[in-house]
Design a protein that fits this description.
Helices cover 74% and strands 0% of the residues.
Length: 91
């Protein structure tokens, strides 16, 4: 992780999700191979309830780096979306 991204990441801790996404989008436009930025933007989208946008960013990060931490985020997202309470359906 380069120092520019770390500085950006630190500055986003208290930012609204809209501001964080806008700043990360600008960073991604300037650094299209920044898989960490895709992962972080995906996490901001997920937290805002923008599930499909989050998954798209996780997939973009994985395409850049197959060993990306986005793989775990995508797995968690998939598990959450696939969850169902079987007891509610089969009393």
């Amino acid at each position: 992780m380069n120092s520019d991204f770390q500085t950006l990441k630190d500055s986003l801790k208290l930012a609204s999700w809209e501001e964080a996404v806008a700043r990360l989008s600008d960073y991604i436009a300037a650094h299209p191979d920044a898989e960490e930025a895709y992962t972080l933007r995906g996490m901001k989208y997920w937290g805002a309830g923008k599930r499909s946008l989050a998954i798209n960013d996780y997939l973009s990060a994985i395409r850049i780096n197959p060993d990306s931490s986005a793989r775990l985020a995508l797995q968690a997202a998939t598990e959450i979306l696939d969850y169902r309470n079987k007891d509610l359906y089969n009393p």
